[in-house]
Amino acid sequence: MDKKDVARLLDQIAAFLELKGDNPFRIRAYHTAARAITTFSGDLAAAVTSGELAELKGIGPGTYEIVREVLETGRATVLEELRSEIPPGLVEMMGISGLGVAKIRQIHESLGIDTLAALEEAARNGRLAKLPRFGQKTAQKILRRLEFLRRSIEYKLLHHAQEETERLAHALSELPGVVHVDTAGSVRRRQELVRDLDFVVETTGSGNELADRLGHLVGVQEFVGYAPGAFTLKFTSDTVADVYTCDARSRGFELIWATGNEPHIDGLKLRAQELGLSWTPEGLRGDDKLLECPTEEAFYKTLDMQFVPPELREGAGEIEAAIDHTLPNLVTAPDIRGFLHCHTNYSDGTSTIEEWAIAARDGGYEYVGITDHSAAATYAGGLYEESIGEQHAEIDDVNGKVSGVTILKGVEVDILEDGKLDYDRPTRAKFDFVIASVHNRFGQNEEEMTARILTAMDDPTMVILGHPTGRLLLSRDPYPLDLDAIFEKALKKNIAIEINAHPQRLDLDWRRVRRAANMGIVISIGADAHNTAGMSNMDLGISIARKGWLAADQILNTRPLEGFLDHVRGRGAA
């Protein structure tokens, strides 16, 4: 477990104590310890071993022992005891956005509700709305958020799944007898939402030996499934992981199988049958012998197919294209020359302009597009007009100091309710480029929202349509929108449509990215990063572009600086 996991666990203990109505000072102590862990700059495990953590302000003897136990065993006895004392439904309610512990206690004590099903019924029949400080609107919000909660319990965001996968892959690789560990499943296919984690483990030992070693991994709660060569583990974090074992000769086949998805595998089985081969649990068979498939490349070659990148294995035409050897040459990270859509401390970011310039240069980018929020975004500290000159002067100064990268004066302006863009046109003309996005009034119907964005697209200063559908994964549905009309207008006006790479957005959806690109629409990948640590968002955006079958020449910020600015100038002439 890392510091974030430990801090989250301490906050959970505090929340459970609050649900029980425990001593407020004790509750506050756990929250304080969580903050201390989060801000601690050293190595947490080493600080526990040395005793340094016990001296840290905010850490008492009790919380120190909990941290030590968690790092050693992956579980906390205190938390497990609290779980056994509190109705499971109340614990589940804590995952409902906007429903704090105090309101959960009020619901439980006033209405006797202790399950999600009972909460939903009370929200529908009016009992919930009658509680003090609730009302009908709150009840309706809870109903919507219950649906999101059901999905969020089952799924996790890609970047969270990726972090867990990396930690577990490392732990698996340390087990005796393990030669190699590959990530598989939906994480490897780069699906935006992930249910289970999947691994292929090349091992020299027997299945029984590996089963015993897997059972001793930190955080393993139980085996929930076992078959020859396959194990399903459940962790105390509720994560479920499937582990498939293989030897070196069958690693490629097993990795194909474990990566999936099902329609892709079905297509491969059909292709094997067409070539007179048989698909068995052990691998492909031909001429009554098992064919060796040590790599995925060898597997596809056996089927006389082009190698299919994992991101494309969705049963969406990739089998046919691979047979015809017409799969596109997908975009890769080195193809991206401009780092776009990042916020500084002039609005709601925390990194300075100079920090962004240095990070972009060191990341191998030719240019970086600063895009702080416009004035209408007061919730995000939007840039007032009197501050624009100050910001631009600082950009000029940093451009003179930091070599090897060019900082562009961009802005993310709000698309207002009537479709106009924030700032007047002369003010927008001061910027090198404009991203325009919807940030409010999500309750408009499809006709209103579509008209709003189409009106905005008539403005020649708009270069990129930011996070086009407004979705927040596991939190907010896309707003209603006629995307066909938006795509047609974008093509006509040569407006780029963004893949917003913020891990909670990944908007435009990869299925629609492919449709837009096939129409000839230019796609932009924007990190929507609020500090330099968010540079890693770009990898997620590239994954979505690859899932959308995009080649480098279909993406705006693969162009060199002058090519990017040519596109901007072309929009201004529209």
Written overview of the protein:
It contains 24 helices and 17 strands. A hairpin with a 2-residue loop joins strand 5 and strand 6 (230-235). The protein is of the alpha/beta class and 574 residues long. The strands form 4 sheets. It has a 7-stranded parallel β-barrel, surrounded by 6 helices. Strands 2-4-7-6-5 form a 5-stranded mixed beta sheet, sandwiched between helices. The protein has a 3-stranded antiparallel beta sheet with strand order 8-9-10, covered by helices on one side. Helix 1 packs parallel to helix 5. 45% of the residues lie in helices and 15% in strands. The termini are far apart.
Strand order of the largest sheet: 11-12-13-14-15-16-17
The coarse silhouette is globular
Give average pLDDT, whole number.
92
Write down the Rg.
Answer: 26 Å
Distance between the termini: 53 Å
Q: Label the structural class.
A: alpha/beta
Helix content: 40-55%
**Biggest sheet layout:** 7 strands, parallel, barrel
Indicate the low-confidence ranges by residue numbers: none
Strand content: 15-25%
Tally of contiguous helical segments: 24
Structure summary, number of beta strands: 17
Compact summary:
The protein has 24 helices and 17 strands.
Give the arrangement of secondary structure elements.
Layout: H1 3-20, H2 24-39, H3 44-50, H4 61-73, H5 77-85, H6 88-93, H7 101-111, H8 116-125, H9 136-154, E1 156-157, H10 158-173, E2 178-184, H11 185-188, E3 193-194, E4 197-203, H12 207-214, E5 220-227, E6 230-235, E7 240-246, H13 251-259, H14 262-274, E8 278-280, E9 283-286, E10 289-290, H15 296-302, H16 318-324, E11 338-342, H17 353-362, E12 367-373, H18 385-401, E13 406-414, H19 425-428, E14 433-437, H20 446-456, E15 464-465, H21 483-493, E16 496-500, H22 510-518, E17 523-529, H23 537-547, H24 561-572
Parallel strand pairs: 4-7, 11-12, 11-17, 12-13, 13-14, 14-15, 15-16, 16-17
Antiparallel strand pairs: 1-3, 2-4, 5-6, 6-7, 8-9, 9-10
